[in-house]
Amino acid sequence: MSVSVVAKNTCQTTGEGPYWEEETKSLVYVDITQNDVHRWSSITNEDTSLHLGLMYFVVVTGCK
Question: Is residue 7 domain-resident?
Fold first, then answer.
């Protein structure tokens, strides 16, 4: 097993609560100081974010 940086400098200060979403091959995490939820795609190597305006610490996706 190896560890590597995949989303460098995407958060203002601290990225928290990483969650691997197997279905989309994405890493979902929060920027707790900016109230943003990020998703990094291992397929496209792109990081997108959504500003929620509220403080979140952990994101859990898709309840079935």
Answer: no
Host domain of residue 53 = 12-64
Tens digits of pLDDT across the chain (64 residues): 888 888 888 888 778 888 899 999 999 988 888 889 999 999 999 999 999 887 766 666 665 5
Whole-number Å distance between alpha carbons of 4 and 25: 16
Buried b (16+ CB within 10 A) or exposed e, 7-21: beeebeeebeeeeeb
- The bridge status of strand 26-31 relative to strand 15-21 is antiparallel
1: in domain: no
Query: Can you give the pTM of this predicted structure?
Result: 0.78
Structural tokens at position 19:
């969650």
Contact 29, 18 (CB under 8 A): yes
